[in-house]
Specification:
alpha+beta; 7-stranded antiparallel beta sheet; 4-stranded parallel beta sheet; globular
């Protein structure tokens, strides 16, 4: 049976549905639901033009029960805290020699500036995003983002437009439609408002003035793909009373006193939207990143929290009473890891324990024998570029990409594992495959009629360490089981059940 939203769209004449979808997609494009693709020199030397590309918006929401979403945000916070605690342990004096050796391998792939993280500052994570797939057992946390958690703005843009569009279609009276829209928006909450509340709290905790608006620098690289979202933050933070600007990394400098400034004025707070590896180590911004407390950088350099091998080590330690106690994992951190993180291990030679606690004599041999159940991921990478699903390899899917990793050997699961094991310092992790089912969604387009498609949808929950707790999430959708916006994925409106009820009742 179709959902009430599906029934609403199926009940419209095709030409009316096309008009609604076209207007919806066009409004979102103007709002900033876009990715930016800077021009580059072509074969003839001529520069191609810059492009703003639409993120495909869905006209069907992902609906989450408020209690489930709150629980996911709470566990996301616990996982973030656990990774901070683990990083401090591994970089301290009580780690074992084997743990120190593995830590050195994990950190060896980081750029020098990425390795300049401040252990104390790691506890000041103003925003983090934990990405999940949901299987029959509930949400499964696949990875954590603490440098560019992103999509708080994107998720708000699409939720607001979706609610407004449905309200207008449900009620032709503009006053009643506006009231319906307002009730739904209030119940749904705002990820952008949550982000700003966290940034304010952390800035004030670091000594930012409380008697005037903050000068907020939203800092990214030139050509950042998410410029549309960053412009949204500048507008929203300014509308809340602050002096917020989207700035490029080369516009930050140190004044005569050593304080951060930009465009001729002082900066109270820096919201960082650039990976440290993209920053010139000799630049003023690199100096700012090396002193995150003084300059109120949020988030500070937090690369260890995003290393997938760190998540694999946390998964292993949480299953071991003695090691969990040595690290000092709190009860909620250990519980969240065991309940949310699918079985994950760093792919190294030697013994381990399996997904059901069974002893594994040789992890390499065990992984070779269980391709249908597993995913391999490069430890330090992003965007799903080095993720290999065992079932895809068995089915012969994506072998061209696999061939790049296994050359000169044929692209097989076994040859990939052998290439990984002899591939130098780079670590990979092996993770139990989270089995999900595609969902039917309606994808809007600015020009073409909307299309019904079967898509894989992930669910991300936001978290912070300290300050007001975020209560929101975002959902991406893709035909592929490797879901990524920059890789061609779309965005679904994320609604709580009570917000949807207010919209439709």
């Amino acid at each position: 049976m179709p959902s009430r939203i599906e029934a609403l769209w199926l009940g419209l004449a095709p030409e009316r549905l096309h008009a609604v979808a076209r207007n919806y997609a066009e409004e979102l494009f103007r709002d900033g639901l876009t990715v930016f693709k800077p021009g580059s020199p072509g074969p003839d030397g001529a520069a191609t033009p810059d492009e703003w590309l639409a993120i495909p918006p869905l006209l069907t929401p992902k609906v989450l029960v408020r209690e489930r979403l709150d629980d996911m945000c709470a566990s996301a916070r616990a996982l973030t805290s656990a990774l901070v605690r683990l990083t401090r342990y591994l970089c301290g004096s009580t780690a074992t020699p084997a743990e120190r050796a593995l830590t050195e391998r994990m950190l060896a792939t980081l750029a020098p500036l990425e390795r300049a993280f401040d252990l104390e500052a790691l506890g000041r994570i103003a925003t983090a995003r934990v990405d999940h797939f949901v299987d029959a057992g509930g949400p499964r946390a696949l990875e954590l983002n603490a440098t560019i958690p992103a999509m708080q703005g994107y998720s708000d843009l699409i939720a607001r437009r979706f609610i407004s569009t449905v309200a207008r279609e449900r009620d032709p009276d503009p006053v009643r439609a506006a009231e319906r829209e307002g009730r739904a928006l209030a119940l749904n909450g705002s990820n952008t408002a949550d982000l700003l509340a966290s940034l304010e709290w952390h800035a004030h905790a670091l000594g930012a003035p409380t008697d005037r608006p903050l000068a907020i620098a939203i800092v990214c690289r030139r050509g950042d793909a998410q410029l549309g979202e960053l412009a949204h933050y500048a507008r929203a933070f300014s509308a809340a009373g602050h002096a917020a600007e989207q700035l490029f990394v080369d516009e930050l400098e140190l004044d005569a006193t050593g304080a951060a400034s930009a465009r001729g004025h002082a900066v109270d707070l820096i919201y960082r939207h650039i990976f440290a590896r993209r920053v010139d180590p000799a630049s003023a911004f690199a100096a700012i990143l090396r002193d995150p407390t003084r300059h109120r950088v949020l988030n500070p350099i937090a690369s260890p929290l995003e290393i997938k091998a760190m998540l694999g080590l946390l998964s292993e330690i949480a299953d071991d009473d003695a090691r969990a106690a040595a690290v000092g994992l709190a009860d909620d951190e250990r519980s969240a890891t065991r309940a949310r993180v699918p079985w994950t291990r760093v792919l190294v030679d030697g013994p381990s324990s399996g997904p059901d606690g069974e002893p594994i004599v040789d992890l390499r041999a065990w992984v070779r024998a269980h391709a249908s159940e597993l995913v391999l991921k490069k430890s330090w990478d992003y965007g799903g570029k080095r993720v290999v699903l065992g079932p895809d390899v068995i089915a012969g899917v994506g072998l061209a990409r696999l061939a790049e990793l296994t050359a000169p050997q044929p692209p097989t699961w076994d040859s990939l594992i052998e290439a990984i094991m002899r591939g130098g310092p780079d670590l990979w992790v092996v993770q139990r495959l989270v089995v999900t089912q595609p969902e039917r969604h309606l994808v809007a387009d600015r020009e073409q009629p909307p299309t019904w498609r079967d898509l894989h949808v992930d669910v991300s929950a936001y978290a912070s360490l300290g300050g007001p707790a975020p209560r929101g999430g975002v959902c991406r959708a893709s035909a592929s089981r490797i879901v990524n916006i920059l890789g061609g994925g779309g965005l679904a409106p994320t609604l709580t059940g009570d917000a949807l009820a207010a919209l439709l009742d």
